[in-house]
Amino acid sequence: MIEQSSNDAMADQSAQGPQFALQRVYVRDLSFEAPKSPEIFRQDWTPGISLDINTRQNNLEGDFYEVVLTLSVTVKNGEDVAFIAEVQQAGIFLIKGLDAPSMSHTLGAFCPNILFPYARETLDSLVIRGTFPALMLAPVNFDALYAQELSRQQNVGSDSIQ
């Protein structure tokens, strides 16, 4: 009887299919620097914005994964750096029942897409505290970035074979 119950439990788990659940969202690291303050506030404001995006994943234990989205922004007013702001927005996700390509896509595109609004809001709040105008970053297509990275990796792999 016990054997049948454990088999039923395993069948129920496999019948559930893939599982995904956001466990926690948090700021892992945060920095702000305004090297030309207060002089920068006396200049006409004509900003140039540079945004760098990076993601990384860590398997925590079992089916739990940490995904870290890093947004680094450098804003120049003319030749002067007005400010540099960076946030590492992280999340812990429960992910199970996915094949390798689906897991890679989930960690590389789906999870960062969930974290991006939190990171954008954190950066805007940080920049406003420095008394600069909010950045209002446009949405990012993480699926396209993920596809570009896969293509780049495939090209690098095929170039090294030749």
UniProtKB/TrEMBL annotation:
<dbReference type="InterPro" id="IPR035958">
    <property type="entry name" value="SecB-like_sf"/>
</dbReference>
<dbReference type="GO" id="GO:0006457">
    <property type="term" value="P:protein folding"/>
</dbReference>
<dbReference type="GO" id="GO:0005737">
    <property type="term" value="C:cytoplasm"/>
</dbReference>
<dbReference type="InterPro" id="IPR003708">
    <property type="entry name" value="SecB"/>
</dbReference>
<comment type="function">
    <text>One of the proteins required for the normal export of preproteins out of the cell cytoplasm. It is a molecular chaperone that binds to a subset of precursor proteins, maintaining them in a translocation-competent state. It also specifically binds to its receptor SecA.</text>
</comment>
<keyword id="KW-0653">Protein transport</keyword>
<dbReference type="Pfam" id="PF02556">
    <property type="entry name" value="SecB"/>
</dbReference>
<dbReference type="GO" id="GO:0015031">
    <property type="term" value="P:protein transport"/>
</dbReference>
<comment type="similarity">
    <text>Belongs to the SecB family.</text>
</comment>
<keyword id="KW-0963">Cytoplasm</keyword>
<dbReference type="GO" id="GO:0051262">
    <property type="term" value="P:protein tetramerization"/>
</dbReference>
<keyword id="KW-0811">Translocation</keyword>
<keyword id="KW-0813">Transport</keyword>
<comment type="subunit">
    <text>Homotetramer, a dimer of dimers. One homotetramer interacts with 1 SecA dimer.</text>
</comment>
<dbReference type="GO" id="GO:0051082">
    <property type="term" value="F:unfolded protein binding"/>
</dbReference>
<keyword id="KW-0143">Chaperone</keyword>
<protein>
    <recommendedName>
        <fullName>Protein-export protein SecB</fullName>
    </recommendedName>
</protein>
